[in-house]
């Protein structure tokens, strides 16, 4: 038996329900009067203004200062750069014709060019710059004959000064036939005969001069005294076509 002073612990049973404590009623707050705001007007642009709003790319407004599309500057890489013109063919100066100056090379073409005091360096220069493999040289006083044809011994070096002088000498040493002489005008026959006599007299009274007389007329006699080298000029844009200018020799 339990004693009257013994305390017991009571555990609540599941079927015991505790009613919640009632919440006190909230006191009524201050009352506010709700008055509706007047509507704010919203500005809506007219439909025509929306349709005519200019755009940067497709503006139809007449008030713009320039209606052309912007131009893109041309790139420096695509600009036209003029190319230098190719150098024109140039004759060797000391065999070229200079109308305002005394020719640097001045000699009687009836004499062999070996009598000239030219160095091997001068003789080995190209007659034309840039070098050409061949040349055709015309002489105005000998229009009845074909031009002088000079062919370079070396295509790499081109026609040399020595080859031009030698070709002119060989060309003028060709003989004139009796038929060619007879077909010439009378005055020309007289002048050619005078040039022949003067050429032989220049050789003096020697066996060589007499032998030269026996050989007869040569093309150099057809120059009729105008047998001093004056110089070459190019006849056209083709540097292979040249004209040899000859001037009269001084009379004694």
Describe this structure in words.
- This protein has 252 residues and is α+β, with helices and mostly antiparallel strands.
- It has a domain of 158 residues.
- It has 6 helices and 6 strands, in the order H-E-H-E-E-E-H-H-H-H-E-E.
- The strands form 2 sheets. A 4-stranded mixed sheet has the order 4-3-6-5, with helices on one face.
- It is globular.
- It holds the Pfam family DUF6699.
- This is DUF6699 domain-containing protein.
- It comes from Rickenella mellea.
- InterPro entries: DUF6699.
What percentage of the residues does DSSP assign to strands (E)? Answer: 5-15%
Structure class: alpha+beta
From the alpha carbons, calculate the radius of gyration and give it in angstroms: 58 Å
- Tell me the distance between the termini: 188 Å
Q: Can you list the strand order of the major beta sheet?
A: 4-3-6-5
Basic shape: globular
Q: What is the element string, with H for helices and E for strands? A: HEHEEEHHHHEE
The number of helices is 6
Q: Sketch the major β-sheet.
A: 4 strands, mixed
Give short descriptive properties of this protein.
alpha+beta; four-stranded mixed beta sheet; 6 helices; DUF6699 domain-containing protein; DUF6699
How do you describe this structure in short?
By secondary structure, the chain is α+β, with helices and mostly antiparallel strands. It contains 6 helices and 6 strands.
